[in-house]
Design brief:
- With 207 residues, the protein is an alpha/beta fold.
- It has a single domain (7-204), classed as Alpha-Beta Barrel (TIM Barrel), CATH 3.20.20.70.
- It is built from six helices and nine strands; from the N terminus they run βββαβαββαβαβαβα.
- The protein has helices at 63-70, 91-99, 135-138, 151-159, 177-190, 200-204; strands at residues 11-21, 31-37, 60-62, 77-81, 103-108, 120-123, 141-146, 167-172, 194-196.
- A nine-stranded mixed β-sheet has the order 3-1-2-4-5-6-7-8-9.
- Helix 2 (91-99) links the parallel strand 4 and strand 5.
- The two termini are 26 Å apart.
Length: 207
Amino acid sequence: MRIPELNNGDLLPLAESFYTIQGEGYNTGKAAFFIRLGGCDVGCSWCDAKETWNPALYPPTPIENIVNEAVKYKAKSIVITGGEPLTYPLDKLCKLLKKERMQIFLETSGSYPLSGIFDWICLSPKKRKPPVGDIHQIASELKVIIEKEEDLIWAEENRAKAAKSTLLYLQPEWSRRAEMVPLIVEYVKNNPAWSISLQTHKYMNIP
């Protein structure tokens, strides 16, 4: 993965940005402006944003331009996602967003060190490239994708590293939801510290 020159975070490879409704996890149903950065080397086979993996496809965009677009919308919630957004230094982008009094939510696999200032961190760890540092302890929510039954073991391994205050979610992999939902339902009934996250934006057919 060839990372473009970003001038220490003054520029970022913007894959897309859009105003929509958060569809997953604790903040489901809330309006938010999404900033999707291109570039990811985790390589999940079921990723629904594979087109973002190669950062060279996305010209480095001045962060001022990104923020200027974000402030056009009524909601003051920003979701920074990817790709894997922590591939890049996010401190400068977050500082500009905070000057506009935005709440900033991060969606990450945790596979790179944390940068930036966030009001909410959704950690979705992946076995192919596990989280680094102490992000389990500062994550607001832990959201584990369940593609097969053995992924529940991975979920519990990550739960053991998380803080007691971290909210816990199991989310069925979309293409296997028919098989995984009954499994997850029974698991949560027997392990009620977990909750179920669904990709409600896909049911609503919105971005």
